[in-house]
Protein backbone atom coordinates (compact mmCIF):
# COMPACT_ATOMS: atom_id res chain seq x y z
CA UNK A 1 0.00 0.00 0.00
CA UNK A 2 1.31 3.43 -0.80
CA UNK A 3 0.63 4.93 2.56
CA UNK A 4 2.42 2.35 4.65
CA UNK A 5 3.07 1.44 1.63
CA UNK A 6 7.49 3.70 -23.72
CA UNK A 7 3.77 8.18 -26.33
CA UNK A 8 6.73 6.15 -24.91
CA UNK A 9 7.45 9.46 -23.54
CA UNK A 10 5.05 12.13 -22.49
CA UNK A 11 7.00 14.65 -24.52
CA UNK A 12 6.54 12.49 -27.63
CA UNK A 13 2.78 12.35 -27.11
CA UNK A 14 2.20 8.62 -27.51
CA UNK A 15 -0.33 8.13 -24.74
CA UNK A 16 -1.78 4.68 -24.15
CA UNK A 17 -4.68 4.15 -21.75
CA UNK A 18 -3.64 1.38 -19.39
CA UNK A 19 -4.37 2.44 -15.83
CA UNK A 20 -7.44 1.48 -13.90
CA UNK A 21 -10.12 4.13 -14.07
CA UNK A 22 -9.27 5.33 -17.61
CA UNK A 23 -12.47 4.59 -19.46
CA UNK A 24 -11.79 6.26 -22.82
CA UNK A 25 -8.67 4.80 -24.48
CA UNK A 26 -6.43 7.37 -26.10
CA UNK A 27 -5.05 6.15 -29.38
CA UNK A 28 -1.25 6.13 -29.34
CA UNK A 29 0.46 8.58 -31.64
CA UNK A 30 4.12 8.94 -32.43
CA UNK A 31 5.17 12.41 -33.38
CA UNK A 32 8.40 14.18 -34.10
CA UNK A 33 9.79 16.49 -31.47
CA UNK A 34 7.58 19.54 -30.86
CA UNK A 35 8.61 22.69 -32.64
CA UNK A 36 10.56 24.74 -30.16
CA UNK A 37 11.04 28.44 -30.73
CA UNK A 38 14.76 28.56 -29.97
CA UNK A 39 14.29 27.70 -26.29
CA UNK A 40 11.62 27.23 -23.62
CA UNK A 41 11.67 26.92 -19.84
CA UNK A 42 8.89 25.14 -17.95
CA UNK A 43 8.37 23.38 -14.66
CA UNK A 44 6.11 22.48 -11.77
CA UNK A 45 5.96 23.28 -8.06
CA UNK A 46 4.16 20.82 -5.75
CA UNK A 47 3.15 20.54 -2.11
CA UNK A 48 1.68 17.19 -1.02
CA UNK A 49 0.21 16.15 2.33
CA UNK A 50 -1.32 12.86 3.49
CA UNK A 51 -2.62 11.43 6.74
CA UNK A 52 -3.92 8.02 7.85
CA UNK A 53 -5.64 6.61 10.95
CA UNK A 54 -4.57 2.93 10.78
CA UNK A 55 -4.13 1.24 14.15
CA UNK A 56 -3.84 3.76 16.96
CA UNK A 57 -3.10 6.62 14.57
CA UNK A 58 -5.33 9.64 14.32
CA UNK A 59 -6.04 11.67 11.21
CA UNK A 60 -4.10 14.92 10.94
CA UNK A 61 -1.83 13.92 13.81
CA UNK A 62 1.83 14.58 13.16
CA UNK A 63 2.83 11.31 14.81
CA UNK A 64 6.26 10.90 16.31
CA UNK A 65 9.78 10.56 14.99
CA UNK A 66 12.18 7.69 15.55
CA UNK A 67 15.73 7.84 16.78
CA UNK A 68 18.87 6.60 15.01
CA UNK A 69 18.28 3.01 16.19
CA UNK A 70 14.78 3.14 14.66
CA UNK A 71 13.10 3.03 18.05
CA UNK A 72 9.80 4.85 18.30
CA UNK A 73 9.89 7.95 20.48
CA UNK A 74 6.13 7.74 21.07
CA UNK A 75 2.86 6.35 19.79
CA UNK A 76 1.26 7.19 16.42
CA UNK A 77 4.52 6.90 14.52
CA UNK A 78 4.63 8.20 10.97
CA UNK A 79 0.92 8.49 10.19
CA UNK A 80 1.14 11.90 8.46
CA UNK A 81 3.44 12.65 5.55
CA UNK A 82 4.47 15.76 3.64
CA UNK A 83 6.89 16.94 0.97
CA UNK A 84 7.59 19.90 -1.29
CA UNK A 85 8.93 19.46 -4.81
CA UNK A 86 10.01 21.62 -7.74
CA UNK A 87 11.31 20.79 -11.17
CA UNK A 88 12.46 22.93 -14.08
CA UNK A 89 13.07 21.92 -17.68
CA UNK A 90 15.02 23.71 -20.40
CA UNK A 91 14.39 22.77 -24.03
CA UNK A 92 16.27 24.14 -27.00
CA UNK A 93 15.91 23.50 -30.71
CA UNK A 94 19.48 23.35 -31.94
CA UNK A 95 18.71 22.27 -35.51
CA UNK A 96 15.63 21.45 -37.55
CA UNK A 97 14.03 18.38 -35.94
CA UNK A 98 16.67 18.17 -33.19
CA UNK A 99 15.80 19.28 -29.66
CA UNK A 100 17.87 19.11 -26.47
CA UNK A 101 16.09 18.75 -23.10
CA UNK A 102 17.58 19.18 -19.63
CA UNK A 103 15.62 19.02 -16.38
CA UNK A 104 16.38 19.29 -12.66
CA UNK A 105 14.29 18.20 -9.68
CA UNK A 106 14.42 19.25 -6.04
CA UNK A 107 12.73 17.55 -3.08
CA UNK A 108 12.46 18.88 0.47
CA UNK A 109 10.34 18.53 3.61
CA UNK A 110 10.72 22.29 4.23
CA UNK A 111 11.00 21.38 7.90
CA UNK A 112 7.47 19.96 8.07
CA UNK A 113 8.80 17.00 10.06
CA UNK A 114 9.43 19.34 12.94
CA UNK A 115 5.76 20.15 13.38
CA UNK A 116 3.11 18.75 11.01
CA UNK A 117 4.31 15.36 9.72
CA UNK A 118 6.56 12.43 10.59
CA UNK A 119 7.06 10.83 7.17
CA UNK A 120 7.80 11.70 3.56
CA UNK A 121 6.16 10.90 0.23
CA UNK A 122 9.37 10.01 -1.60
CA UNK A 123 12.72 8.57 -0.61
CA UNK A 124 15.09 11.42 0.25
CA UNK A 125 18.06 9.14 0.82
CA UNK A 126 20.46 9.59 3.70
CA UNK A 127 24.04 10.60 4.37
CA UNK A 128 24.54 7.70 6.78
CA UNK A 129 22.38 4.81 5.64
CA UNK A 130 23.38 2.58 8.56
CA UNK A 131 22.37 5.02 11.26
CA UNK A 132 19.69 6.90 9.37
CA UNK A 133 17.88 4.90 6.68
CA UNK A 134 16.27 6.93 3.93
CA UNK A 135 12.63 7.69 4.65
CA UNK A 136 10.16 6.29 2.16
CA UNK A 137 6.51 7.19 1.72
CA UNK A 138 4.68 6.63 4.98
CA UNK A 139 7.83 5.68 6.84
CA UNK A 140 9.07 7.58 9.81
CA UNK A 141 11.69 10.28 9.72
CA UNK A 142 14.76 9.70 11.86
CA UNK A 143 14.82 13.18 13.31
CA UNK A 144 16.08 14.77 10.07
CA UNK A 145 15.83 14.22 6.34
CA UNK A 146 18.20 15.65 3.79
CA UNK A 147 16.98 17.58 0.78
CA UNK A 148 17.51 15.83 -2.55
CA UNK A 149 18.34 17.34 -5.94
CA UNK A 150 18.96 15.41 -9.12
CA UNK A 151 18.91 15.51 -12.92
CA UNK A 152 15.56 14.02 -13.85
CA UNK A 153 15.78 14.64 -17.60
CA UNK A 154 18.66 14.95 -20.06
CA UNK A 155 18.04 13.84 -23.62
CA UNK A 156 18.13 14.63 -27.31
CA UNK A 157 15.11 14.15 -29.57
CA UNK A 158 15.63 13.64 -33.29
CA UNK A 159 12.48 13.80 -35.38
CA UNK A 160 11.59 14.19 -39.02
CA UNK A 161 13.23 10.93 -40.02
CA UNK A 162 11.86 8.81 -42.91
CA UNK A 163 8.55 7.19 -42.15
CA UNK A 164 7.69 9.76 -39.48
CA UNK A 165 10.36 8.14 -37.34
CA UNK A 166 12.05 9.52 -34.25
CA UNK A 167 14.83 8.84 -31.78
CA UNK A 168 14.96 9.93 -28.14
CA UNK A 169 18.22 9.24 -26.36
CA UNK A 170 19.09 9.99 -22.74
CA UNK A 171 17.31 10.34 -19.39
CA UNK A 172 13.55 10.41 -19.88
CA UNK A 173 10.15 9.26 -18.72
CA UNK A 174 8.80 6.06 -20.23
CA UNK A 175 5.22 4.83 -20.57
CA UNK A 176 4.86 1.13 -21.36
CA UNK A 177 2.88 -1.58 -19.54
CA UNK A 178 5.82 -3.11 -17.66
CA UNK A 179 8.37 -0.22 -17.66
CA UNK A 180 6.92 3.18 -16.91
CA UNK A 181 7.14 6.39 -14.91
CA UNK A 182 4.60 6.41 -12.09
CA UNK A 183 2.79 9.74 -11.73
CA UNK A 184 0.85 9.39 -8.47
CA UNK A 185 3.68 10.47 -6.19
CA UNK A 186 5.20 13.90 -5.79
CA UNK A 187 8.29 12.83 -7.77
CA UNK A 188 8.44 10.67 -10.91
CA UNK A 189 10.91 7.90 -11.69
CA UNK A 190 12.89 8.22 -14.92
CA UNK A 191 15.14 6.07 -17.10
CA UNK A 192 18.44 6.25 -18.96
CA UNK A 193 17.20 4.91 -22.27
CA UNK A 194 17.20 5.08 -26.06
CA UNK A 195 13.81 4.88 -27.76
CA UNK A 196 13.15 4.57 -31.50
CA UNK A 197 9.76 4.69 -33.17
CA UNK A 198 8.43 4.70 -36.71
CA UNK A 199 5.14 4.87 -38.60
CA UNK A 200 6.63 3.47 -41.82
CA UNK A 201 3.81 0.90 -42.02
CA UNK A 202 0.24 2.12 -42.58
CA UNK A 203 -1.75 2.68 -39.38
CA UNK A 204 1.06 1.02 -37.44
CA UNK A 205 3.63 2.22 -34.94
CA UNK A 206 6.78 0.18 -34.29
CA UNK A 207 8.74 0.80 -31.09
CA UNK A 208 12.14 -0.42 -29.89
CA UNK A 209 13.79 0.65 -26.65
CA UNK A 210 17.08 0.07 -24.88
CA UNK A 211 16.69 0.74 -21.17
CA UNK A 212 19.99 1.02 -19.35
CA UNK A 213 19.07 2.23 -15.86
CA UNK A 214 16.22 3.56 -13.77
CA UNK A 215 15.61 5.02 -10.30
CA UNK A 216 12.26 3.43 -9.56
CA UNK A 217 11.34 2.10 -6.11
CA UNK A 218 8.19 0.42 -4.84
CA UNK A 219 5.92 2.69 -2.84
CA UNK A 220 8.15 5.76 -2.93
CA UNK A 221 8.50 5.71 -6.78
CA UNK A 222 12.02 7.19 -6.70
CA UNK A 223 15.06 5.72 -4.97
CA UNK A 224 17.29 8.69 -4.31
CA UNK A 225 20.56 9.24 -2.51
CA UNK A 226 21.47 12.76 -1.41
CA UNK A 227 25.11 12.05 -2.20
CA UNK A 228 24.17 10.98 -5.73
CA UNK A 229 23.35 14.01 -7.87
CA UNK A 230 22.58 11.59 -10.66
CA UNK A 231 19.30 10.62 -9.01
CA UNK A 232 20.01 7.12 -7.79
CA UNK A 233 19.67 5.42 -11.19
CA UNK A 234 20.74 1.76 -11.17
CA UNK A 235 20.87 -1.11 -13.65
CA UNK A 236 18.01 -3.63 -13.88
CA UNK A 237 20.22 -6.68 -13.37
CA UNK A 238 23.00 -7.81 -11.09
CA UNK A 239 25.11 -8.29 -14.20
CA UNK A 240 24.59 -4.58 -14.94
CA UNK A 241 23.02 -5.34 -18.27
CA UNK A 242 20.30 -3.24 -19.92
CA UNK A 243 16.72 -4.25 -20.59
CA UNK A 244 14.96 -4.22 -23.95
CA UNK A 245 11.39 -3.50 -25.01
CA UNK A 246 9.66 -3.89 -28.38
CA UNK A 247 6.13 -3.01 -29.45
CA UNK A 248 3.75 -2.95 -32.39
CA UNK A 249 0.66 -0.75 -32.15
CA UNK A 250 -1.96 -0.95 -34.88
CA UNK A 251 -5.04 1.19 -35.65
CA UNK A 252 -6.12 -0.34 -38.97
CA UNK A 253 -9.60 -1.09 -37.61
CA UNK A 254 -11.76 1.96 -37.05
CA UNK A 255 -11.94 3.07 -33.40
CA UNK A 256 -9.70 0.17 -32.38
CA UNK A 257 -6.18 0.14 -30.96
CA UNK A 258 -4.24 -3.14 -30.81
CA UNK A 259 -0.97 -3.40 -28.89
CA UNK A 260 1.66 -6.10 -28.40
CA UNK A 261 4.70 -5.53 -26.18
CA UNK A 262 7.67 -7.83 -25.49
CA UNK A 263 10.36 -7.28 -22.85
CA UNK A 264 13.69 -8.93 -22.14
CA UNK A 265 15.75 -8.39 -19.01
CA UNK A 266 18.89 -10.49 -19.63
CA UNK A 267 19.56 -13.16 -17.01
CA UNK A 268 16.41 -12.11 -15.14
CA UNK A 269 13.13 -12.44 -17.01
CA UNK A 270 11.04 -12.01 -20.13
CA UNK A 271 7.55 -10.50 -20.27
CA UNK A 272 4.77 -9.70 -22.73
CA UNK A 273 1.62 -7.57 -22.76
CA UNK A 274 -1.29 -7.79 -25.23
CA UNK A 275 -4.10 -5.25 -25.26
CA UNK A 276 -7.09 -4.30 -27.41
CA UNK A 277 -9.28 -1.21 -26.90
CA UNK A 278 -12.42 -0.61 -28.98
CA UNK A 279 -14.61 2.47 -29.12
CA UNK A 280 -18.33 1.91 -29.72
CA UNK A 281 -19.79 5.39 -29.72
CA UNK A 282 -20.36 6.36 -26.11
CA UNK A 283 -19.15 2.95 -24.96
CA UNK A 284 -15.72 1.37 -24.98
CA UNK A 285 -14.45 -2.17 -24.51
CA UNK A 286 -10.98 -3.31 -23.49
CA UNK A 287 -9.12 -6.56 -23.03
CA UNK A 288 -5.66 -7.30 -21.65
CA UNK A 289 -3.49 -10.41 -21.33
CA UNK A 290 0.02 -10.27 -19.83
CA UNK A 291 2.64 -12.70 -18.63
CA UNK A 292 6.19 -13.07 -17.34
CA UNK A 293 8.84 -15.81 -17.02
CA UNK A 294 11.83 -15.86 -14.69
CA UNK A 295 15.04 -16.91 -16.45
CA UNK A 296 16.55 -19.04 -13.68
CA UNK A 297 13.60 -20.73 -11.99
CA UNK A 298 11.37 -20.76 -15.07
CA UNK A 299 8.35 -19.68 -12.99
CA UNK A 300 5.65 -18.15 -15.18
CA UNK A 301 2.92 -15.73 -14.15
CA UNK A 302 0.00 -14.34 -16.13
CA UNK A 303 -3.13 -12.23 -15.79
CA UNK A 304 -6.06 -11.11 -17.90
CA UNK A 305 -8.50 -8.23 -17.60
CA UNK A 306 -11.62 -6.83 -19.24
CA UNK A 307 -13.20 -3.38 -19.08
CA UNK A 308 -16.46 -1.76 -20.14
CA UNK A 309 -16.52 2.01 -20.24
CA UNK A 310 -19.05 4.76 -20.90
CA UNK A 311 -18.53 8.46 -21.59
CA UNK A 312 -21.07 11.12 -22.48
CA UNK A 313 -20.23 14.77 -22.00
CA UNK A 314 -19.18 15.44 -18.42
CA UNK A 315 -20.08 11.92 -17.24
CA UNK A 316 -17.82 8.89 -17.49
CA UNK A 317 -17.95 5.47 -15.85
CA UNK A 318 -16.34 2.05 -16.04
CA UNK A 319 -16.49 -1.49 -14.67
CA UNK A 320 -13.56 -3.94 -14.91
CA UNK A 321 -12.50 -7.43 -13.88
CA UNK A 322 -9.04 -9.02 -13.71
CA UNK A 323 -7.59 -12.37 -12.67
CA UNK A 324 -3.98 -13.25 -11.87
CA UNK A 325 -2.87 -16.89 -11.68
CA UNK A 326 -1.93 -18.60 -8.43
CA UNK A 327 1.80 -19.04 -9.17
CA UNK A 328 4.04 -18.16 -6.24
CA UNK A 329 7.62 -16.87 -6.39
CA UNK A 330 7.09 -15.16 -9.76
CA UNK A 331 6.85 -11.61 -11.07
CA UNK A 332 3.67 -9.73 -10.30
CA UNK A 333 1.78 -8.15 -13.21
CA UNK A 334 2.81 -4.65 -12.25
CA UNK A 335 5.53 -2.08 -12.89
CA UNK A 336 8.85 -3.95 -13.13
CA UNK A 337 10.63 -0.59 -12.97
CA UNK A 338 9.42 -0.04 -9.39
CA UNK A 339 9.95 -3.58 -8.15
CA UNK A 340 6.82 -5.45 -9.41
CA UNK A 341 5.84 -6.05 -5.80
CA UNK A 342 3.94 -4.48 -2.90
CA UNK A 343 3.53 -0.79 -3.62
CA UNK A 344 4.18 -1.08 -7.38
CA UNK A 345 1.44 0.27 -9.63
CA UNK A 346 -0.16 -1.99 -12.26
CA UNK A 347 -1.52 -1.09 -15.70
CA UNK A 348 -4.33 -3.62 -15.40
CA UNK A 349 -7.73 -1.98 -15.87
CA UNK A 350 -8.69 -2.82 -12.30
CA UNK A 351 -5.89 -0.94 -10.54
CA UNK A 352 -7.02 0.79 -7.37
CA UNK A 353 -6.80 4.51 -6.79
CA UNK A 354 -4.47 4.28 -3.83
CA UNK A 355 -3.57 0.77 -2.63
CA UNK A 356 -1.09 -0.58 -5.18
CA UNK A 357 0.55 -3.99 -5.27
CA UNK A 358 -2.65 -6.08 -5.02
CA UNK A 359 -4.41 -6.46 -8.41
CA UNK A 360 -1.36 -8.00 -10.13
CA UNK A 361 -0.31 -10.17 -7.20
CA UNK A 362 -0.65 -13.92 -6.71
CA UNK A 363 -4.19 -15.31 -7.15
CA UNK A 364 -5.78 -11.84 -7.20
CA UNK A 365 -9.35 -11.73 -8.48
CA UNK A 366 -10.38 -8.09 -8.79
CA UNK A 367 -13.60 -6.24 -9.46
CA UNK A 368 -13.44 -2.48 -9.98
CA UNK A 369 -15.99 0.21 -10.80
CA UNK A 370 -15.77 3.96 -10.98
CA UNK A 371 -17.42 7.12 -12.22
CA UNK A 372 -16.56 10.78 -12.62
CA UNK A 373 -18.51 13.94 -13.38
CA UNK A 374 -17.11 17.27 -14.53
CA UNK A 375 -19.02 20.16 -13.00
CA UNK A 376 -16.89 22.73 -14.76
CA UNK A 377 -15.67 24.34 -11.59
CA UNK A 378 -14.54 20.94 -10.27
CA UNK A 379 -14.34 17.30 -11.31
CA UNK A 380 -15.70 14.72 -8.86
CA UNK A 381 -14.87 11.01 -8.91
CA UNK A 382 -15.50 7.79 -7.04
CA UNK A 383 -13.92 4.36 -7.42
CA UNK A 384 -14.47 0.99 -5.73
CA UNK A 385 -11.93 -1.86 -5.91
CA UNK A 386 -12.24 -5.32 -4.37
CA UNK A 387 -9.38 -7.86 -4.49
CA UNK A 388 -9.86 -11.40 -3.16
CA UNK A 389 -7.53 -14.39 -3.04
CA UNK A 390 -7.56 -17.95 -1.74
CA UNK A 391 -4.33 -17.40 0.21
CA UNK A 392 -4.13 -18.10 3.92
CA UNK A 393 -4.93 -15.44 6.51
CA UNK A 394 -6.55 -13.16 3.89
CA UNK A 395 -3.12 -12.44 2.44
CA UNK A 396 -3.52 -10.34 -0.69
CA UNK A 397 -7.12 -9.35 0.00
CA UNK A 398 -7.92 -5.67 -0.35
CA UNK A 399 -11.03 -3.51 -0.46
CA UNK A 400 -10.91 0.20 -1.25
CA UNK A 401 -13.41 3.01 -1.76
CA UNK A 402 -12.01 6.34 -2.92
CA UNK A 403 -13.68 9.71 -3.47
CA UNK A 404 -11.79 12.48 -5.29
CA UNK A 405 -12.24 16.13 -6.19
CA UNK A 406 -10.07 18.17 -8.54
CA UNK A 407 -10.24 21.90 -9.20
CA UNK A 408 -8.12 24.87 -10.19
CA UNK A 409 -7.67 27.93 -8.01
CA UNK A 410 -5.82 30.60 -9.94
CA UNK A 411 -2.58 29.01 -11.13
CA UNK A 412 -2.82 26.17 -8.60
CA UNK A 413 -4.25 22.72 -9.36
CA UNK A 414 -5.79 21.17 -6.25
CA UNK A 415 -6.53 17.44 -5.92
CA UNK A 416 -8.24 16.09 -2.81
CA UNK A 417 -8.92 12.45 -1.99
CA UNK A 418 -10.53 10.40 0.77
CA UNK A 419 -9.83 6.65 0.84
CA UNK A 420 -11.43 4.03 3.06
CA UNK A 421 -9.63 0.68 2.80
CA UNK A 422 -8.69 -2.59 4.40
CA UNK A 423 -5.98 -5.00 3.31
CA UNK A 424 -4.59 -8.44 4.21
CA UNK A 425 -7.37 -9.03 6.72
CA UNK A 426 -6.75 -5.85 8.70
CA UNK A 427 -9.40 -3.48 10.00
CA UNK A 428 -10.55 -0.62 7.80
CA UNK A 429 -8.68 2.68 7.97
CA UNK A 430 -9.03 6.10 6.42
CA UNK A 431 -6.62 8.22 4.37
CA UNK A 432 -6.92 11.89 3.43
CA UNK A 433 -4.72 13.43 0.72
CA UNK A 434 -4.17 17.05 -0.29
CA UNK A 435 -2.06 17.49 -3.45
CA UNK A 436 -1.30 20.98 -4.78
CA UNK A 437 0.66 21.73 -7.95
CA UNK A 438 1.47 24.85 -9.95
CA UNK A 439 2.84 24.29 -13.46
CA UNK A 440 4.63 27.24 -15.02
CA UNK A 441 6.42 28.31 -18.17
CA UNK A 442 8.77 31.22 -18.78
Structure explained in plain terms:
The chain has 442 residues and is mostly beta strands. It has one domain: Porin (Beta Barrel), CATH 2.40.160. Helix content is 0%, strand content 48%. The chain contains no helices and 21 strands. It has strands spanning 39-52, 80-95, 98-108, 148-161, 165-172, 191-198, 204-214, 216-217, 221-222, 234-235, 243-250, 256-265, 269-280, 283-294, 300-312, 315-324, 365-374, 378-388, 398-409, 412-423, 429-441. The strands form two sheets. The protein has an 18-stranded antiparallel barrel. Strand 12 (256-265) and strand 13 (269-280) form a beta hairpin. The two termini are 37 Å apart. Mean pLDDT is 83; it is low at 3-36, 66-76 and 127-140.
How is the secondary structure organized here?
Elements lengths: L38 E14 L27 E16 L2 E11 L39 E14 L3 E8 L18 E8 L5 E11 L1 E2 L3 E2 L11 E2 L7 E8 L5 E10 L3 E12 L2 E12 L5 E13 L2 E10 L40 E10 L3 E11 L9 E12 L2 E12 L5 E13 L1
Antiparallel strand pairs: 1-2, 1-21, 2-3, 3-4, 4-5, 5-6, 6-7, 7-10, 7-11, 8-9, 11-12, 12-13, 13-14, 14-15, 15-16, 16-17, 17-18, 18-19, 19-20, 20-21
Amino acid sequence: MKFTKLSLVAALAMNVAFAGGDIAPVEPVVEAAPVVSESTISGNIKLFYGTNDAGTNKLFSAGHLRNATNTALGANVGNSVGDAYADIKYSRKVMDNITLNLGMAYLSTLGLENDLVSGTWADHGAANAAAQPGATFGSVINGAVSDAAWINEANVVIGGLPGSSFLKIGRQELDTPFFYSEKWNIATNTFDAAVAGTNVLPDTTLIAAWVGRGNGAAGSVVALANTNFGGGHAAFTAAVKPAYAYAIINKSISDTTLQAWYYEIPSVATAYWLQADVGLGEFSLGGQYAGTKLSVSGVKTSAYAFKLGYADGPLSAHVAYSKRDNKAFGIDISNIATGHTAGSESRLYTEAYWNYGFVGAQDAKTIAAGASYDLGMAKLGAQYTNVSTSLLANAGDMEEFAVTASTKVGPVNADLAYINAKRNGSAKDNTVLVMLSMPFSL
